[in-house]
Specification:
Distance between the termini of chain B: 63 Å
CATH class of the largest domain in chain B: Alpha Beta
Oligomer: heterodimer
Radius of gyration of chain A: 24 Å
CATH architecture of the largest domain in chain B: 3-Layer(aba) Sandwich
CATH architecture of chain A: 3-Layer(aba) Sandwich
Structural class of chain A: alpha/beta
Radius of gyration of chain B: 23 Å
Number of strands of chain B: 18
Helix content of chain A: 25-40%
Order of helices and strands of chain B: EEEHEHEHEHEEEEEEEEHEHEHEEH
Number of domains of chain B: 2
Number of domains of chain A: 1
Largest interface: A-B, 77 and 88 residues
Strand order of the largest sheet of chain B: 7-11-6-1-4-5-12
Chain lengths: 303, 345
């Protein structure tokens, strides 16, 4: 039987490539200074969904919440084989912590029909691993975290292997479930050239409207709106319209979104200062090394 | 969520598996003890399981004033939903102001589920906790005695202090190995409270078919001396130098993430933000540049020796003994010197 999968993905700054000072003078983080990438473990989650689709058939919807630019990773998902893409974007989402984020995402997922929800275990900008379990709770479904292997899918049950740090555990559960997938689970496929050709023009309404404005600098708002409707319709007919949802279309309770929906607040952010210590330069010579070893033995650091 | 309440206790979720309490919650007890003393409230441990009464005494000896003991046959093996349900009920019954969890595999699976159900805040992977005041920028209102939840963020490049002003309990998971384990004090007295647990099979949605525990190849946390190699060591073959130096020092071999990713040594040996956090008496860093993510796992070592041929390597900023040179010369020299000293003394 075919399965309907929803994959939650996130665009993140590439924290592995941070060099030098990432702080602005006012103590905030220079997000713009870093390249934005597809969160690595979300690619593993997408790959797991693609493997399910390859074996059993079905349908994959990818959702991301973020700035309009996050449409880039939705296109990357379409290049790899996702069927449908949704951008949740709204200024009122800003400053959402994991609890508010999981609430907003749950409103989006509830609008869809699904058997399996997949998330990466954690995102590299926060490393919290909280949104997956929080989303499962909000959806009222079973969570299977740290999935490293999908063992079996049959009718309405799933068997998966979890990486529990010092070993593994195999569990079976009834669908629907939410899986969080670890980086060791698989090797994410690369974009397919044929799909890239097909989906490179896939756009969100925001992107279409930006394009119209660039092409018609003198057009007024009504004209832009009219053109937007026409072009969006044309894209939709070709399956190239990336859906764009705001908090109103999600019918989200604003009290649980953004700043007001976030119990955690930032008190302070500090740059990591490397501790300066009393240190000695040791010459890489027999005498230099012997002196150091002697000192370490004297003070009983070395027994 | 519960309301802000200044009388609420400080809680530690005392994660246990098979009747053995995990190290991380025990490590947390000394810090939690200090938080409770600062606030002038009781420190309590919540322990869930089946036939685990003996654990309550152990928690008292490690600093708990009270132990909430939740025993039920269906709690014999950890599952997210059953444990989350019982913790949710306990939190709403006793209204602790702070609830702390070890950032273990189970802790990171459980705590967010509880946070979502209670609609309270949760900060992941804290490396330190303090009590402090916060003034809100908008109305200049002072919020006294909040839990400062301190954690590295942004790949370890910054340290953020997170607070939860009003939707309590204030909850955090705390990283493994960042706090020293308190010594057990057998003279301590505490109150053990047996909780009634209401649980049905519907809270056990997982059928646990099979489990395989793989013992760790090395116990870095217990090692007094660690010799760690980085990408600079060059190859899996050359990593033998690290093993040899560790052997002659009676220490454990370790590695950076880069060295593990290059296949020089198994992941069990990894020190750093995504590996083990260590605090040995001596840490010898060989061919390690000292990325911030690695330093997060070893900077608290008592003595650090760094061997590197790059004078600008960040590892030198935290090292006590800086050896600028080729590790292929320096390490054999160290081995030779130690062996000779061993013969002399």
């Amino acid at each position: 039987m075919a399965y309907k999968c929803v994959v939650l993905i996130k665009q993140v700054p590439d924290t592995k490539r941070v060099t030098g000072d990432v702080m602005n003078d006012d103590g905030t983080v220079k997000r713009s200074a870093l390249p934005a990438i597809f969160n690595p473990e979300d690619l593993n989650a997408l790959e797991t969904a693609l493997e399910i689709k390859d074996r059993f058939g079905g349908h994959i919807t990818v959702i991301t919440m973020g700035l309009p630019g996050a449409a880039a990773i939705l296109r990357e998902s379409l290049y790899r084989g996702a069927d449908d893409a949704i951008l949740v974007t709204d200024r009122r989402c800003a400053a959402s912590d994991t609890l508010a984020t999981s609430y907003i995402l749950s409103c989006a997922v509830k609008k869809l029909d699904y058997d399996i929800v997949l998330c990466g275990r954690q995102a590299i900008d926060g490393d919290t691993a909280q949104v997956g379990p929080q989303l499962a709770e909000k959806l009222g479904i079973t969570q299977i975290t740290y999935v490293e292997q999908l063992i079996e899918l049959s009718s309405k049950t799933i068997t998966a292997q979890r990486n529990i740090g010092n070993g593994w555990q195999q569990v079976k559960a009834e669908l629907p479930v939410l899986l969080t997938v670890v980086g060791d689970a698989n090797e994410p496929r690369v974009a397919a050239a044929r799909k890239m050709m097909k989906y490179k023009k896939a756009s969100t309404p925001i992107e279409v409207s930006e394009q119209i404005k660039a092409e018609n600098p003198k057009a007024d708002e009504a004209e832009i709106a009219e053109l937007l409707e026409l072009r969006a319709k044309a894209l939709e007919e070709k399956g190239l319209l990336i859906k764009q949802w705001d908090l109103d279309s999600l019918e989200a309770d604003l009290a649980w979104c953004g700043m007001s929906g976030s119990p955690t607040k930032v008190h302070r952010i500090q740059s990591v200062v490397l501790a300066a210590k009393e240190s000695k330069d040791i010459h890489p010579t027999p005498d230099g090394i012997a002196d150091m070893i002697h000192e370490l033995i004297e003070e009983k650091t070395i027994a | 969520m519960i309301d802000v309440n200044r009388k609420g206790e400080v809680w530690v979720f005392a994660e246990q598996h098979g009747g053995k309490i995990e190290d991380t919650p025990l490590e947390l007890m000394s810090k939690a003890r200090r938080l409770a003393d600062t606030l002038g409230v009781k420190l309590a441990a919540a322990v869930l399981g089946d036939r685990i009464k003996p654990l309550a005494k152990k928690l008292v000896r490690h600093g708990a004033d009270k132990v909430y003991l939740a025993e039920h046959p269906l709690l014999g093996q950890y599952q997210t939903n059953s444990y989350a349900k019982v913790m949710y009920d306990l939190i709403h019954k006793h209204e602790p102001q702070i609830v702390l969890y070890g950032a273990t595999i189970a802790g990171r699976d459980l705590a967010p589920r509880i946070a979502s159900a209670t609609k309270a805040g949760l900060t992941a992977d804290c490396t330190d906790l303090q009590i402090g005041d916060h003034t809100t920028a908008k109305d200049k209102k002072v919020h006294k005695n909040l839990l400062f939840q301190i954690r590295p963020a942004f790949g370890g490049n910054i340290v953020a202090t997170i607070i939860n002003l009003d939707r309590w309990p204030q909850m955090a998971t705390v990283r493994e190995g960042v706090m020293p384990m308190p010594d057990a004090d057998t003279s301590r007295k505490g109150k053990i409270i047996e909780e009634m647990v209401e649980l049905t099979r519907e809270y056990l949605p997982l059928d646990i078919i099979d489990e395989h525990k793989r013992p760790k190849k090395v116990d870095l946390k217990a090692a007094r001396i660690i010799v760690a190699g980085g990408a600079g060591v060059g190859s899996r073959d050359n990593f033998q130098l690290v093993w040899d130096l560790a052997n002659c020092l009676g220490g454990a071999p370790a590695a950076t993430r880069a060295a593990v990713d290059l296949g020089f040594i198994d992941h069990d040996h990894q020190v750093g933000q995504t590996g083990t956090t260590v605090r040995p008496s001596l840490y010898v860093a060989v061919g390690i540049s000292g990325a911030i993510q690695h330093q997060a796992g070893m900077a608290q070592s008592q003595k650090i020796v760094a061997v590197n041929n790059d004078p600008d390597a960040p590892i030198f900023q935290v090292a006590h003994y800086k050896i600028l040179g080729d590790l292929n010369d320096v390490v054999p020299l160290m081995i030779k010197t130690i062996k000779e000293k061993g013969i002399q003394e």
